[in-house]
Amino acid sequence: MDTAQLMACAQELQAGWVPAKVEQILQTDEQTICMRLRTVSASGWLHISWHPTSFHLCMGPPPVRGAASEAFSFGEQLGGSLRGLVLLQAGLPQPWERVVALGLSSRPSDPISHTLYFEAMGRYSNVLLVDQDSGKIKAAGRQIGGSQSRLRQLQVGGSYHLPPPAPGLDPGQPRSEADWVDIVTKTTEQLGDQKGRAASWQQGLVRAFQGVSPGLVKDLAARAGAALSLVRLALRHPHRYIPYLDLASGQISVLGPPGTRSVPQNPSDEMRSSATPADSTSSADMAALNGTSPNSQQQDEDQGGGSIHALVDGYFRGRQADEGWGRLQQRLNKALNTALKKLEGRLTSLKQQADTGRQADATQRSADLLMANAFRYEEEGTRELDLEDWDTGSLRTIVLDEGKSAVETAEGWYGRARKQRRAGKSLEPLISAAQGDIAYLQEVQASLEQLQGDREGTSNPDLAALQGIQDELVAGRFMKAPADAALAAKGAAKGRKAQKRSGSAAAGLDRFRRFTSPSGLTVLVGRNNIQNDELSHRVAKDGDIWMHVRGFPGAHTLLQVPSGSEAAEEDVQCAADLAAFFSKARPEGRAPVIVASPSDLHRPKGSRPGQVMVKKERVEYGRPDKSLAAAAAAAAAP
């Protein structure tokens, strides 16, 4: 989010949401707060994020229910100080600086008592609440001490100062166009000398003036072409030109659709030839910048055009969802790998102990052999004899324990054999449990590998399935619960109750992967073990066909067959292909798939989610590369 977009967002906030009462403040994550504003005619949520790569300020939808608003003290501090105040001002305290100041007071007629500063500066982004009278910081999203910055410390109780101004001139400072062009030309030449190669006038423009980003210059140049006077015009009157967005394409852009004029490359000659003596702000100039006719531009303005806040919110919401999905996937992968490594080590140790337990028979045979020949040791007065093994007929050297007679040594060996047997029996359930846990985690790992992040926002099914995997691992004690786990579970429970009250049971099936067979039947595929469990034991009914690939971790698949009808062979093959595709048998060209009736499924007592026993089954062979999912993936590939 560059200065131009931030300026446009602040301008729209000032125009549409001032004055507004602050009714509620929530902190949805470590770097995002949401303020509920209410005006005379509307109410909405102001989202402010100081995320290092997704920092933004815009109006947006209400926060997702179950967010960890109680887990962060900064949101509580803001709520205690600002709840009930009135937003009176929204704007940039310094021109062309990436800082927005929100002024608040108890009443619309009172002077501003608090200022909420949003500093949009990449990894240095921050949100700070400052008392207007004392100039002291009351709360900070990120506190910066002397060890982090010697230039500017931001700590609660300290004085607040605006960030140092960015290098360069105010774009509106040069009064004449000749001076403006001269500044850009000289800066471009100096930049070229420093780099040892020719620099473009766009690079010189970014270096010469404050708050001018490369993206803004590129966009302006694509629209203004060789008419540099129009570029200067837009920078001198940003509130009139820059807030215009390309709403038709749904993309964040500082201006309208690109024009057809070429972009100049020479940093001096073409710039000077484009200079004009007057500084016009006519509708024709705006149309040239926006790539539209004056009439169409005026029509857009009369119709309201659209909201930059909606575009900014849509863009950054999807971006944050992508990043959140990636972070959660990475955390789950780490937890799975750690748990699997620990279980495999435990299983190896248990098997080694079990091998020792299997030596009980050999120990007892040695004790029997020693007891039968105890008199020989006494007669010959020795501690070591070669005795014939009754089973093999070979000689075995039997040595008595130090300081013990033959009988005492044999009794000790009998006791050791009993312990070995007991140990072997006690280790069997532990080995079985470890093997079951490893198989379960491999199922979870397969589900995680199959999930692909949807890039449309936090409400997409894949993200919900990913959070379901986290809940699985936390419930199984394979990873620690996140700080907001209890609050998220509380919110999810409220959502399930609301769905139950509304009676929208069919809407709950949207959580599963859904496909349509050649005959029009619905095929549902689970995304994680919790969904697999629900699909097999709650959604499945008599007459449906349940499937799971044999010998590989994979998803449960359900072919829903309407009552009184039967599934065609091509429908069963379609579902079998999907079951093979959503499993670790995907690389195989052909995989066996278990086919059973839901009435033949049994959940073992004490089993983990997604684990079933099948009483009666038959086998079909699925072809992963022929599945509907494989065809969809191939069609979506670039």
From TrEMBL:
UniProt name for this protein: NFACT RNA-binding domain-containing protein
GO cellular component: RQC complex
Biological processes annotated in GO: rescue of stalled ribosome
Organism the protein comes from: Apatococcus fuscideae
Comp. bias (Low complexity): 273-288
Region of interest (Disordered), ranges: 157-176, 256-309, 596-620
Pfam families: NFACT-R_1, NFACT_N
A GO MF label: ribosomal large subunit binding
Stretches assigned to coiled coil: 333-360
Gene3D superfamilies associated with the record: ibrinogen binding protein from staphylococcus aureus domain
Record key words, sorted: Coiled coil
Every NFACT RNA-binding domain range: 512-615
This protein's record includes keyword tRNA processing: no
